[in-house]
Amino acid sequence: MKTETLYDKDAFAKNFEARVISCDEITSGDKKLFKVVLDATLFFPEQGGQSSDVGNIDAAEVLDVQIENDVIYHYCTNGFLSGEMVTGEIDWTHRFNNMQQHTGEHIFTGIAHNMYGAENVGFHLSDNTVTLDLDTELTEEQIREVEYKANLVIAKDVKVYAYYPQPSVLETIDYRSKKEIEGDVRLVEIEGTDICACCAPHVRTTGQVGLLKVVSFEKYKGGTRVFILCGLRALEDYGRKIELLQQSYQTLNCKEEEIPEKIKGLLDNNKQLKYDISETKAKALMEQIEKYPGDVADITIFTEGLDAKNMRDGVNALVEKHSGLCAIFSGDDEEGYNFVIGSSTRDCSAIAAGLREMLKAKGGGSKQMAQGNVMATKCEIERVL
Ligand SMILES: [Zn+2]
């Protein structure tokens, strides 16, 4: 027999009584669970991109609800006897939250469809994300317009109906549907805004959605993926964002509206400091290079914090005075070294090849100059050179 879907008839019922049809013990990971089939249920199973209701059946926790081969299974922490009468209670906070998100999705997509002909090609509602996929690429401005109009529909507090029209009536109705539906079609109508085929529970009037906020959007498979939050989830998100802002302006010691400018100032300052440090290091390197006596042929300098340009300038200065191999390694034994080597008499590309071969270095160059990086210690590098 088929489980009677009570959630279909009354989306606001929280408790129900039912008879146990079957109960099978299973192991899930290291846990024992029970797959329970009832003759009736208020638990909405996972379907159409929406995660399932949770709650209790007597003392058992209902962790998940799935449809498998047309049968609704409640995954419970305790088992029951077949034929036993039980009382179920859905987690109402969780359910109402889902209904707010889900109805919000209908409103947003309905308006996007009316305004831009966008079709909904995907929907995902979990405990932390709500996304809807449209087959049309929308601009930021268009998305904000749909968002604003959705909130006007919410403020108007119009009715949300669910019904099964007769097939002859259904033919005359223009409704949205993600796929061809077998059997009776359940329509969800938002007065004056949208008619869509859907099997999930929804709120009674749009006012119960409270608020719809687009938190982000991105291009997705030639269309647009929109991340929305509705009602209490939107409120929670707003609270979290205010907290982030507060922490930011307190740390930056500025007013809220000054945060972007303040961050830009810090980044600019940081860039300038990096430049100053680089200049100072380059100057110190040149002073060091000048101190080497000219009759020494090979010079290898180990240092840290030099950028590629400073290293090349240093090697060029060395090559002018020293006829052998001139090398600068910048880094440390833990993180490895960047290197530039140059010579007027020796083949640098061959030396770089040696470093690649013996120390798995990366990089290369010409006969006169080569550069790269190597994950090795100073001792290992000196041995190879
Ligand atoms: Zn729906």
**Strand residues, percent:** 25-35%
Terminal Cα span: 82 Å
Provide the low-confidence segments as ranges: none
- Fraction in helix: 25-40%
| Spatial strand sequence of the major β-sheet | 2-3-7-6-5-8
Can you summarize the main beta sheet?
A: 6 strands, antiparallel, barrel
CATH architecture of the largest domain: 2-Layer Sandwich
Give the helix/strand class.
Answer: alpha+beta
Shape: elongated
The CATH class of the largest domain, by name, is Alpha Beta
**What ligand species are in this complex?**
zinc ion
Instruction: Kindly report the average pLDDT value.
Output: 94
Description of the structure:
With 385 residues, the protein is of the alpha+beta class. Helices cover 36% and strands 31% of the residues. The protein is built from nine helices and 20 strands. The strands form five sheets. Strands 2-3-7-6-5-8 form a six-stranded antiparallel barrel. It has a five-stranded mixed β-sheet with strand order 16-17-18-20-19. Helix 2 packs across helix 3 and helix 6 runs parallel beside helix 7. The longest helix has 33 residues. The chain starts with a strand and ends with a helix. The mean pLDDT is 94. Zinc ion (ZN) binds next to helix 2.
